[in-house]
Give the backbone structure.
Amino acid sequence: MNVNVIEEIKKLIAIPSVTGEEARIGKYLYERFTNMGCDTRLIEVEKERFNIFAVLPGRKKDDLGLLFHGHIDTIPAYNMKSPFTPIVKNNHIWGRGSVDQKGGIASVISAFEEIISSKKPLKYGVGFIGVVDEESEHRGSMNLNDTGIKAKYAVVTEPTGLKLGIGCKGTAPIKIIVRGKTGHGCRPWLGVNAVEYGMKIASELLGEDLPIYKVKDIDEVKATLNLGIIKGGVAYNIVPDECILWFDRRLVPGENQFQILDRIKEKIKKFEDCYNVLVVVEIARPDWNWPPIKKRGLKPALTDMDAEIVQVIKASHREMIGDNPILFFTDGYNEMDFLINDLGIPTVQYGPGDSGLCHTDEENIEINQLIKASLVYKTAIKNLCEDYNED
Ligand SMILES: [Zn+2]
């Protein structure tokens, strides 16, 4: 088995699948799971872009006992050396997508193969859904609503370093455009300086106390606001008539982007009322052109600490690795949002590799983590889906 997971990730890395160009890897995975004995289908999300859904059936026709979720797209190669020819060195594998997140997918494939070769019948089916477009507009996971997938529990296979994630923050990209009036820099009183008011608005928003959420048995998580871009002005001696501020607001459970937008609009209304500026506030991201994702947003998500899936992954990790996994709530965002908030499936995040290496030119994954993740996935399938009694 251990060799399989290494060979598998090498094959996956060797099929480039940069966002928008996922067709080849989708077809590869379709054949891979079909040849293994799964009921497999390609689900068209857009022209030449497919989610791949594979099910290892169980005796009962109920909901799947467990669904693994992974994204099949990667970010571009950028300056990575040898992005699509995997390099194995010092017990690690380098390549684009190695940690984000072909490692998680390779571990699922290897776990499925182990379950099949054990020849023990499954009571409940186990599934894998590979989605497109995670690195951009989330069209693949948005499509899950139309797929009719039903599962008791799910695992997002994004890298966690084999820690167990029970929730994620949401994220609201907020663009603010401040419009004033231009003029000569020698008579600024005749213009309305958009950059000056943009700075005032920024310090007003950045000075606000943001909500804190206490996650049971873990820690407090805090909402945050980062001003990532501030743009304005054409020359030092011209009064700028436009200033653009771009914020990244991270949401804790209980918050939603519309309340946040309303609150920001309310806070900055006084600038419009008093200073002759016009302020436009909207949800916008440089790479988002698709209206449905702007409308839905990326929501915070949380699975109850006492949910069976948390206990089963914990127990499977203990059984295979020997200690208790560290539980965490991630500051980042991941697509457990769609599984929890849209499909109502209690979901955790658990996967191989160091998430700090995602989106870097040094992207690599430790082979031991791949092997361990695969063992834990296999054990979780056994615990949740195998046929122990005759009902
Ligand atoms: Zn990822």
Remarks:
- The domain at 170-295 is CATH 3.30.70.360 (Alpha-Beta Plaits).
- The radius of gyration is 24 Å.
- The chain has a mean pLDDT of 95.
